[in-house]
Specification:
By secondary structure, this protein is α+β, with helices and mostly antiparallel strands. It contains 3 helices and 2 strands; from the N terminus they run ββααα. Strand 1 and strand 2 form a beta hairpin.
């Protein structure tokens, strides 16, 4: 996980040409490294979102905004990057999904 301040970080010209989609299941923390640049960017991001969505531990899209984003991203067309997000959006979706999972895992919730 990254600190919440990472969400406010403005993208710069430096940094790696890749990012990470994250997902928490009942037994693992899944990380999918994806390209953030290049002609295969959209297809790679959608494929990674699809692999996460197809996990046995994936909760329905109604579970949180994170699951909804992953489902929508995975179902989008590989010919366009619209809806594939940015590293900041990937972090936000992963953090929202993780925190929702943690809260719902607490006794009495």
């Amino acid at each position: 996980m990254q600190p919440p301040a990472a969400l406010a970080t403005k993208p710069g010209g430096g940094g790696p040409p890749w990012g990470v989609l994250r997902y928490t299941t009942g037994s693992s923390f899944v990380l999918c490294r994806v390209l953030n640049k290049g002609p295969d960017r959209a297809a790679g991001i959608r494929a990674a979102a699809g692999r996460i969505r197809d996990l046995p531990g994936f909760r329905t899209a109604a579970a949180s905004v994170g699951e909804s984003w992953l489902r929508d991203c995975a179902q989008g067309p590989v010919t366009t990057g619209q809806g594939t997000g940015t590293p900041a959006q990937w972090l936000l979706a992963g953090e929202a999904q993780h925190m929702t999972y943690v809260v719902r895992s607490l006794p009495g919730t």
